[in-house]
Write a structure and sequence with these properties.
By secondary structure, this protein is mostly helical. It folds into two domains: 34 residues, no CATH class; 81 residues, no CATH class. It contains seven helices and no strands. α3 runs antiparallel to α4, α4 crosses α6 and α5 packs antiparallel against α6. The protein is globular and about 45 Å long. The relative contact order is 0.09.
Amino acid sequence: MTTPTKIEVDAATEEHLAKLAMSDPEMLLAGLEARADWQATSGLDGRSYSLAKIAALIALDAPPASYLWQVANAVAAGCTAADILGVLIAVAPQVGGPRTVAAAPEIMVALGLTLPAEVDGPVE
C-alpha cells in the first residue's frame, strides 16, 4: 500500500487547490478567461477549438468531468452531437478501441443522453 507524501504546501497553493476541488466559481472563471486567451492564440474558430479539445480528451482517456465541461463548451460554440461523434470516429484509429469505447458513454452523458442498459451494467 502506498501512503500519500506529506510535503510543505504554502497557504496560497493549498487555498487554490481547495477552491478547484470545490468548483469555486471564481477559479472556474479564471479558467474560462485563460481558455479564451488560448483560443485566440490558436487561430481556430470556437467550433474547431472545442472539437480539437474533445479529441484530446479522448486521446488522454480523460475523466468524466472533463467531458461534461468540454462538450458543454462545444455545444455553446455551435457544435452538434453529430460533430462530436465525427471527432470520436476520426480519432478512433489513432487512440484505439478501448479509449473510443470508454469515451462514447462519457460523451453521451455530457450530451444528456441515456446510456444503453448494457453500458450501465447487466440487466437482471
